[in-house]
Amino acid sequence: MRPGTSGLRKKVEVWQAVDESNKNYVENFIQSLVDTAVEGNDGKPLDTLIVAGDGRYFNAEAIQIICRVLAGNGIANIWIPQGGIMSTPAVSAAIRTREGGKAQGGIVLTASHNPGGPGEDFGIKYNEGYGQPAGEEFTEDLYKRSLELTKFKTVEGSADVDLNADAGTTFSITDESTVTIIDPFDSYLTSLRSCFDFEGLKKFCQRDGVSILYDGMHGAGGPFAKRVLVEELGLPEVSLLLNP
Prior knowledge:
244 residues, alpha/beta, 7-stranded mixed beta sheet, globular
């Protein structure tokens, strides 16, 4: 379980525990991650985490497993975007800005630009309190913790969270832990508007001869590109390379 850049990438069948030797692979990794994050929080329990992914194969199933482990560890607020899909920059923006920066981190299910699907890659990364990718010190501590781990905490018998519920919908996993479905775009758009002149960009994009081609490269950027480039800035949807 030695992570690389900010997390761990493996073939999806490893995470699915198709082989008995990988039983509870997701649970063990998340327990190691939570233990490491708590230690970095001066031993204080975590209160709020975001869980989101890029929508690749096994994304929805992994989110359900992770929610049960987080609830088993007493994390009070678990925020999940509609559909369980959120780009990594959007996760960072939500960590920094949603409810005044309440989230202490984000668990991001992605294998970057590597293709997903059966026989392909799946990964779990962690973004820390300012939205930044977990550094080498964190991932090395996580690895050491995974070597020592003898058990994980989870919640058995809880119903799956409806990832497609309306934003603002809540689900109680335990008396102490609640999942809230959040809008995947709002914090990201707020952050972008604080950096860029959207009205000026919209006027520029409407000029003759302006064209953009966007390719999400297996990531979760497609819906966010559509939300920003098409719905906010008025570019034609053909700007998005949906089926490369």
